[in-house]
Design brief:
The structure holds 2 protein chains of 2 kinds. Chain A is of the alpha+beta class. Chain A is built from 3 helices and 6 strands, in the order ββββαβααβ. In chain A, helix 2 crosses helix 3. By secondary structure, chain B is of the alpha/beta class. The longest helix of chain B has about 35 residues. The two termini of chain B are about 30 Å apart. Classes of the chains: A alpha+beta, B alpha/beta.
Amino acid sequence: VNGRPSSYTRHPAALWRIVGDEVLLARRGSGDLDQLRGSATDAWQLLYEPQTLGSLVGALADRYGQRPDAIRADVMALLDEMLVRDWVVRVDADE
Amino acid sequence: MNELVHRAQRAVLSVGLVDDSGSDPAAVQDDDWRSFITWVVARKLTGLGLAACQRDRLQLTEEQSTELLDGHRTAMVHALVLERLLLDLANAFDQTGIETVVLKGPAFAHTAYPDPSWRSYGDLDVLVATSDWARSCELLSELGYRRRFPEPRPGFSERFGRTAAHVNHEGYELDLHRTPAAGPFVFWLDPAELFEHTSSFTIGDVQLNRLTDTVSLLHACMHATFGFRPPLPVPLRDIAQIATASRVDWNLVQELARRWKLRAVVEYSLRTASETLGIDPLQRWDTSAAERPSRQERKALEAFTTERRDHGGSARAALGAIPGLRAKAAYARALLLPSRDFLASRLGSDASYLRRWRTPLRWLSGG
């Protein structure tokens, strides 16, 4: 995530539903359904609008009563995974 | 049904429509839970049920909540699979140059409800122009869908029919509609006019057509009335949801209802929705004598809302509405002497015209 454009948001093609503390995800042209749980669901809800890594870490740290440094690596890993799976996209600052 | 269950059902059906924040949440006793959750799941109300819990209108035990959540997860997986199919289908129709209008489930879920997870659905409904009907059926066949039942006679669907269910290899169903009307209303509502009352919505990043809020309300009323007797909860909730939360032009509702002879249908379904959901009357139009349904409209409604429905009411009322003797004869002939394929699909291996005629003969003899 380091050195990349600073903001992330949900992929516009993602089809999704929140069920309790889970997010169910699907997309056109793929037979698989994906699932996010727990804090990943909170991240998904925050990503309805573009978030920098810092703002996402800050919001989740507030929600879980953690220090930002303590969760930063986990949030980066989650964003990386969601980028690989095409559930989130990077948004350039001038977009 | 006991009062507690009735209250819990009302809490589910009316969540978000009424401000009952001052009253205690409804609860379901252990003895009633099995029938209650069966009703919620079978009637596709899990999303409304969870919303009622989240808004403290329904208080469930942990075990009950888990079961409701499980039911809702299953419903939402189904909805997502259907949405994915819908986008593939919309793309295929678009590439073939066939205009489609998405009806009911996904269209209502994504436009009328505060959260699409509140509105579950079991299949897809797509409207096409009558002139595109044959091409649409061909396209669906190319895409691996098979028609659930053949038409009674070649050309029947385009001339007299309303919808044809198509199923893909995984069992997912698409109802292809030529019109959302049924029975005599098929001949009173010009489906071409519906394409003048469309708007757009998006699923994912795909833009789709739907009916405007005003015509969606009329369609929800038709669906509630023509679908089942008595009307099912979801169509009634659709009516209330669209009537209260969407941008409905009530003058246009009235004008179209008059022109399409739907005034009795609209009055009946609005009244049934408010009674079933326990909410204030939804009717916001002129109820003066000049705007009351005609006798013909009331009789047509009774073909769906009384015992006549179980005695061929819809088909008989349709026969009366078909313009011209030649067309009436063609309709009656198709239903009385359908193709052998149609007979076999309806009656199985021992299909015969005699078996086919038994039912209408029973109706005529009052049995």
